[in-house]
Structure formats: structure tokens, C-alpha cells
Amino acid sequence: MFLDLPVNLLYTIFVYSFIGIYTEIQFMIFSTLTESINYMHNLTLEHHYGIKATEANIALMSSIINLSGGVGFIISIFFLVPKSDLKGRKYLCVYSRFFLGFLSSLLQLGAAVFQASELYIIAQCIFCAQIPIRMFITALFICECAPDKNRGFASVALIICDVIGQVIMYSITSTTILGGPSTWFIFPLICTIASVALFMTTMKLPESPKWLVKMNRFDEAKKSILFYHGPECDLNTTLISMLKEKNLTQVDKISLSEIWKNDTLREALKLILAVNAFTMLSPIAVEKIYTVQIHNSAGFEITEVLNINLILSIIFIPTRFAGTLLIDYFGRRPVLFIAAALTNIKIWLMSIALSLAYFEGFSWLSKSLTIVSDSVAELIHGTGSYALMPLLVSELFPPSARTVVSQCILVLTTFSNIPTLFSFPIINSIFPPGFYIPFIFIQPIIVGYLYIYLPETKARAVCDIIDSFDQEVTSRRNTLQDERRPLIIRDRTMSLAHKRGSFLLSTSKSRALTYSYDQKMGAREWNNF
């Protein structure tokens, strides 16, 4: 699979994955440089406002930083993400991401040099504004550029280098190395340089060919296809497939309410929401932020926590690369269910470890179970399951629906994190194992739903995926209606379109083939393909 990857697509994935790890470094500054950040808060309160620094005041400053990041995240969802439909994927992935990344890291650098928390608060707002672009729009951009057979590889490979950022932060953020109050400026400085490097290496990349087809810019689309798919690709077949995908809907942009009114798109949205719930309603997202507190509850010191995370990150680096192959070799469903099984094991291990520590006191057994749980978490990341959500959005929805679905998922991700993030410190201070108990019951319900309804989408054209999914949903709905309707009054002449209740989605494969190419492109130009 790796050897079949077009060279230019491999280059695109590499620069976004490897150089783009500066966003992971920026993200981890707040969680790994706690002592230096608190020292900055101390100086800011005393020198700028004449307020004596207390634990409560410093905690308030940290909360303001989190709130600032949330504001930036929400602003990005509603004002930046929609630009990907209007101005293209490249506009956000290259230009907007550079501006936000460069400015936020520059402000973080200023905060480190001048020990000014105000600059860091502003920087956090701007930094978090680029997270939706990195999480979804960049992934959609790469998925839309990749050939069908490489789409899974491309989406997973985009995040494999995050572990390098984690290794960097866990290994040198100690106050005795580069994490001290006078030395932590090196991290935002590296991020500033890396943001410029990412911009310089991506500014000449072509736009997404699927977005260009959607905008009827066919000449540019042909060049983009040849760039990302390679000169040996079947240009005619690829372009026809993209036209079929574009013509799945009769409009260029559809709303969330229109998606919900359509049977097929509604079922696809339910699946995406279930995948999102599987990811968000698990302890792993919380553990990444509160890793020190969780390990303290199991009996570890701060230095031990950082060392354990560093060692495990290094040991399990090969699994990140294996995940890029698994998702296209085995498929989306097996990868998801392997991750689900590992998640369930991890939840039980951590529940037992914290229960032992709470009732019996700290012991080698509670610590050992915690380390095994951390190892399982690394294996979960290695499956590539965390790249499934943007990948499935690009595979289960037509181009006109992807941006609004991405917005919906990002909003739900934001608000679904709030209860777990804010409840953890309280539950952890009262009864640490209690935080994991709800997940024991929630996860099997979500996974069971996905096992029944999630289709396999590997190595298939998007138009074919949606067409077959539409047929499955229609068959399922008609069967349910027939079961509820008495046999004697069934209307066997009811049209399929009427049963579906919506003309929004046009899945007939002949629709794109009968499309008026003469009006859009010119018959002569089309025949020259």
C-alpha cells in the first residue's frame, strides 16, 4: 500500500504530518510545562496587577486560558470552517493555518520572554482557532486529494508524527532541561519557525481536485488530479467518478436540517455521531489532559509520569506506522472494533488499578496495571481509529454536505468534552475509580450500534459507497414500513422517491453519466481526455 502511494501525495502527507507536529508541541506546552506556566502567572499577578499569587488565583488564570482556547475554537467552527466551501480547502489548510500558527506561536514566545500571561491567553485563543482546521479540514483536504485505494492510509498517516511531538515534550520539558522559566521560550520559538516552514512547503500545492470539480473548474481539476494521483492515473475514469460524486446532490451546499430530512444522509449522520461518541465518551481524551493527576491517584510522582509516557511513546512508535496499513488492508470496520475491544480492556484495567490504590493503598500492582493500561492506550492510537471520523465524513457524505457535517461534529466534540473535563477533577478528588464506571456501560452500546449499521468503505469510490448505502437505507426503511402496514392495504405502487421522502440525494449512477458535459466543459475538450 505504501509503495503504491503517488509521490506528490506522499510529499503532501509528509510535510503536513512531520512539519505540522508543531501544533502538537503548542498543544502540549500548557499541560507539560505546568510549573513554568504557573511561575509566569505568579509574576503576572504580582507585577502587573499587584495581586498576591495564591493557588486559587493561579488556578483561575489556568481556567481563563482554557476558556480563551474554547472561544477561539468556537469562533473557528462558525467563521473559518465555512470558508473551506467558499474559498477552497487550500485557503484554510495553507494560508489560514499559517497565519494562526505563526501569530499564536509568536505571542507564546512573547509570553515566555516577558513572563506575561496576557499574551499567552491571547495566543491560546488564536492557537485553538487552528485546531478545527487541523482536525477536520486538513484531513478532508488530504482525503479528497488521495486516490480511493490510498484514502485510509492518507488520513491515518496525517497524524502518525504526533507521537514525535509527544516524545519531544515528554523528554525535554523537565525544569532541569528546557522546561524552566528562563528556557521554555525555545518551544514557541521552534513552533514559530516550523509554521513558516510548513507554509513555504505547502504554498504551491494544488487545490483539492474534488473541490475544483464542485466549482466546475475542470482545467485546474485535471492538473490537480495528475499532481496528486500521478501521471499514470486514468484521468478520464477519475474525473467521471468525481463528477458522479458532485452530482449526488442537485445543490452546491446543503444545510444540517436538509441532511436530517433525507433518510440516507440522516443515517450517515447518525453513524458519524456514533463514531464521535465512541471517541469522546471514553477516558482517553481526558487522560491526555489530566495524565499527571490520574497517575498521582495510582501512586506515581510527576517525574515518573513523564518518564513512563516518554518510554511508552518511544516503544509504540512502530504501531503508529502499522496503523496506516491496517485501515486500508483490513478496512474501517475491523480497525474500529479492534480499537473498541482495546478501549474496553483499558477501562477495566484503569478501574481496577485505581480501586486497588483507593481501597488498599499504593502498591506495585496498582502501578503495574496503570502502566499496562497506558500501553493499551498507545495500541489504540496505533490502530488509526482516531482518523476515522474525518475519513468517514469524506466517504459517507457528498461534497455539498461535508463542511456542515464537520461543523456539527466539531461543535458536539466541544460540548461533549465539557462534562467529562470539568467533572474529572471533582470525581478524582472524591473517588477516582468512579470516573471510569460509566464508560463500562456506555461504550458497548455505541459499539453495538456501529457493528450493526456501519458499512465497509475501503478502496471504493465515494459515489459507489453512497449509492450502495442509499440502497441499504431505502431497503431497511421500506421493510420497516411494510411490517407496520397491513398486507391488504399496502400500496405496492408507491414510488421509491416518495418512500424516501426526499429528492435531495440523487444516487442514480446514470445521473453523472448523462450530465451535460457540453455545457460545463465543451464536448471537444471532454473527448480529448
CATH C-level class of the largest domain is Mainly Alpha
Tell the overall outline.
globular
State the secondary-structure class: mainly alpha
Taking the alpha carbons of the first and last residues, their distance comes to: 27 Å
Low-confidence stretches: 487-503, 512-529
Helix coverage percent: over 70%
Beta-strand portion reads: under 5%
What CATH calls the topology of the largest domain is Growth Hormone, Chain: A
Radius of gyration: 25 Å
Order of helix and strand elements from N to C terminus? HHHHHHHHHHHHHHHHHHHHHHHHHHHHHH
- What's the total number of strands? 0
Outline the biggest β-sheet: none
For this structure, what is the CATH homologous superfamily of the largest domain? MFS general substrate transporter like domains
The total tally of domains equals 2
On the 0-100 scale, what is the average pLDDT?
Answer: 86
Number of helical regions: 30
Quick take:
By secondary structure, this protein is mainly α. The chain has helices spanning 7-18, 22-32, 34-49, 55-80, 83-86, 89-114, 117-129, 131-145, 151-157, 162-172, 186-202, 209-214, 218-229, 235-246, 256-261, 263-280, 283-289, 291-298, 302-315, 317-329, 332-360, 364-382, 388-396, 399-430, 437-453, 462-484, 496-500, 509-513, 517-520, 523-527.
